[in-house]
Specification:
It is built from nine helices and eleven strands. The strands form three sheets. Strands 6, 7, 8, 9, 10 and 11 form a six-stranded mixed β-sheet that branches. A three-stranded parallel β-sheet has the order 1-4-5, sandwiched between helices. A two-stranded antiparallel ribbon has the order 2-3.
């Protein structure tokens, strides 16, 4: 599922910006289909513009019936009555989506015989301090088994002792959910930590869900700002 909201707060209309001759959302959809990992790839949107774009190329597109705070809510509405077990969320601003990282996410559930994992997501090791301090970069800290402890826009862990060789991980907004966990998220109210940080996956932690983080070396470019789009264009070339 690819949630695709047109009026993004930081960069309105970003999903319809040109990237190598096609809109960002089209590039993301085509890249996700090209992985050949899924029974179906569906774009879920609140926008007539995006709906028409994906329809023209023959893609599977669903229009949200309700207003939603976040992409997970939009996806939950779309899959509520579908007979499925695992839902993978690829963000609409991820045109560099690639197969190996998604395979790693899906394998988490194939290897989870006891069903201890509610959802899985990706993280990338980052070393550039400017990126670590950037509030647009969501950071995650994990336990020894790579289960998420917390997500923040602040640098975590805080480097009070700079002699400690702490690693910093950027959270990539690509998720795989058990459908039950996603529907719980949809029905449960937002609490204070999520409201403060504006990071939707914190809601899962606040309600006791377990998030397995999977490290990937593929960073790509998430298009949150006009500057990101320029970087994406250079990388696309």
């Amino acid at each position: 599922m690819i949630p695709a909201r047109y009026s993004a707060s930081r960069f309105p209309g970003k999903l319809m910006q040109d990237l190598g001759g096609k809109p960002v959302i089209t590039r993301t959809y085509e890249a996700t289909v090209a992985t050949q990992l899924f029974d179906d790839v569906v774009v879920v949107t609140d926008s007539d513009i995006i709906y028409n774009e994906i329809s023209v190329i023959g893609g599977h597109i669903v229009m949200s019936k309700k207003e939603h705070e976040c992409g997970s809510d939009r996806i939950a509405e779309a899959v509520e009555f579908m007979d499925i077990d695992i839902v993978v969320n690829v963000q609409g601003d991820e045109p560099f989506t690639e197969v190996e990282s998604l395979k790693k996410l899906i394998s988490v559930f194939k290897n989870d015989d006891k069903k201890e994992v509610d959802l899985a997501s990706l993280m990338v090791n980052i070393t550039d301090w400017e990126e670590i301090e950037n509030p647009n970069t969501v950071k995650v800290i994990v336990d020894q088994n790579d289960f998420a402890l917390y997500f923040s826009r602040s640098p975590i862990p805080f480097p009070r002792d700079k002699s400690v060789d702490a690693k910093y991980y950027k959270h990539k907004g690509v998720y795989a959910f058990r459908k039950d966990a996603l529907m719980d998220f949809y029905r449960l109210p937002m609490l204070t930590l999520e409201a403060s940080e504006k990071i939707e996956c914190i809601r899962y932690l606040e309600y006791g869900k377990r998030i397995k983080m999977v490290e990937t070396n593929v960073q790509g470019v998430e298009i949150d700002t006009p500057e990101d789009l320029e970087r994406a264009k250079k990388l696309w070339k």
